[in-house]
Amino acid sequence: MADAPDPANNQPAGYVLPKVWVWEAGNGGAFASINRPVSGATHEKVLPVGEHPIQLYSLGTPNGQKVTIMLEELLAAGHAGAEYDAWKINIGEGDQFGSGFVGINPNSKIPAMVDHSVDPTISVFESGAILVYLAEKFGAFLPTDPAKRAATMSWLMWQMGSAPFLGGGFGHFFAYAPFKIQYAIDRYAMEVKRQLHVLDTHLASNRYMVGDEYTIADVAIWPWYGGVARGDAYAGAAEFLNIGEYAHFNRWAAEVGEREAVQRGRLVNRGSGPEDQRVPERHSAADIDAVRAKMLA
Fold it and tell me: Where is the composition biased (Basic and acidic residues) (predicted)?
């Protein structure tokens, strides 16, 4: 075809799209050691089980933070049944491909949770599904009013559908790809800016994502978008995206970030950041208390 792109202009130069893609081990940049095109367990490993009703297997990424923040919010609201053990799943070392983890989440992604307060136990995976499960189990942070419930679920699903553009799209090409590709960065930066404008416009007339009521929609959205606003995700991204221009979004991000349960939950299972601001595993409130005391000293 006369108008076909010149392979010399591709990245890498000369790359020609094959008719059938073939996996080449090691082709994956920062995540080459764990990415693969098949599912299932790679090794036998039994998951540990603690003494609390809720057993969480996770890592302190934005998706993992959603669940630990939710559990801390439930405990702060007086729901003792939400006591939990949080076990760290080191995805960089392939813990998510252990037989025990695959047994509760065949998709091998964190977080995954098992509720031992019921017989038989119930396993839940996907962070949004876990939030809904916990909200319904404890009757908290999910409005019963039909209109507010619908709005909460809509914003929750917005986050689930939108965040991959922020993380796997913008975050990957901005921070993790083995070389910079302007087309990819521009493409995803534009989409993330659009998403931030969606949030900023909505929050101009709403204190939280659903009016004046704090819900699982806030719990889901804050770790991803609030994390970028705080500078916790993708070094330099807040400046690059000019986060400061979204005044209403920043007001919301700051308010949610000041909640005690949010500050506690975001420390759990962390695998990055200052060592003295991590709670690798959580088996009681004291585990977080000790780290918080050092941070506040």
Answer: 273-284
Inter-residue contact 50 to 111 (CB < 8 Å): no
Give the phi and the psi of residue 38 in degrees, each rounded to 5. -130, 160
Q: Is the pLDDT of residue 62 over 90?
A: yes
pLDDT at 1: 45
Residue partners of 118: CB distance under 8 A and separation at least 6 = none
Per residue in 92-136, pLDDT tens? Answer: 999 999 999 999 999 999 999 999 999 999 999 999 999 999 999
- The closest alpha carbon to 96, from 59, 133, 131, 127, belongs to 59
CB 170 within 8 A of CB 192: yes
Find out if CATH 1.20.1050.10 is the number for domain 146-266. Answer: yes
What is the phi/psi pair of residue 41, to 5°? Answer: -75, 145
Domain residue ranges in the chain: 146-266
| Measured distance CA(243)–CA(32) in Å, rounded | 30
The crossing angle, in degrees rounded to 10, of helices 247-257 and 182-203 is 80
List Cβ neighbours of 201 (8 Å cut-off, separation of 6 or more): 248
